Amino acid sequence: MSPRITFITAGRILRQLLNDHRTVGLVLAVPALIIALISAIMDEAPQVFDQTGLILLAAFPFMLMFMITSITLLRERTGGTLERLMTTPTGKLDLVVGYAIAFGTAAAAQTAVAATVAFAFLGLDTAGPAWAVFLICIVTSLLGMALGLFVSAFATTEFQAIQFMPVFVVPQLFLCGLIWPADQMAGWLQGVSDALPLTYAVKALTEVRLNPEVTADMWTDLAVVAGAVVLATALGAATLRRRTD
């Protein structure tokens, strides 16, 4: 891997994102506004907001990075950009790490804005440190990026890329504990929930919410999410190949 090529790739993706003002607004403003709306809805139940709002801080980067990555990669595949890059000394690892840096930076900015609004203005409270929340959200966003990288290989239009959300994103949101505690679901659904990486991101956030110190369980849950990122990234990297000689 060449660090120079990697950062050139990351810079190119970031410039594309910054030039799309609607995407910038979607990434930075919309999550904070929706969390503010949820806070107003749960105004009489701050403890419920502490739980739900915290999960949303990770759920939004996961969803948006999946959507943005899948569409961006699809454009690069269909527009011939990826094909041209594969004829240069740029390696698969350079591309994947460059994408991770670019989208991770976007997710960090999104998380910083949403977390600042939630903690400073909406009264979101956790027993544990805010940096742990930030770290979990970034790793979760990379999971969305890795899944988006993978599914972009199976779509031919942007509409098809969005259609993968009910397959890869929505079930995880339903079963991770955002809507209903996973341990109170039907037994077979608990088994499905335990197989989904977003569930472990929620478990890690719960550890931060309930414990003043960072716990071993939090690191274990975060390691599961990171392992899923590596696996999904490897599968996505395998789809980065030339389609012509």
What attributes characterize this protein structure?
245 residues, mainly alpha, 77% helix, globular, ABC-type transporter activity, transmembrane, ABC2_TM_bact-type, membrane, transport
Order of helix and strand elements from N to C terminus = HHHHHHHHHHHHH
Strand portion, in percent? under 5%
Give the low-confidence spans.
Answer: none
Count of runs of 4 or more consecutive helical residues: 13
Question: What is the SS-derived class?
Answer: mainly alpha
Structural commentary:
There is one protein chain. The protein has 13 helices and no strands. It has helices at residues 3-19, 21-28, 30-41, 46-78, 81-85, 92-121, 130-151, 158-163, 165-168, 170-175, 187-194, 197-210, 216-238. The chain is mainly α and 245 residues long. Helix 3 (30-41) packs antiparallel against helix 4 (46-78) and helix 7 packs antiparallel against helix 12. The model has no long low-confidence stretch (mean pLDDT 85). It has one domain (3-238).
Question: What's the structural blueprint in terms of helices and strands?
Answer:
Blueprint: H1 3-19, H2 21-28, H3 30-41, H4 46-78, H5 81-85, H6 92-121, H7 130-151, H8 158-163, H9 165-168, H10 170-175, H11 187-194, H12 197-210, H13 216-238
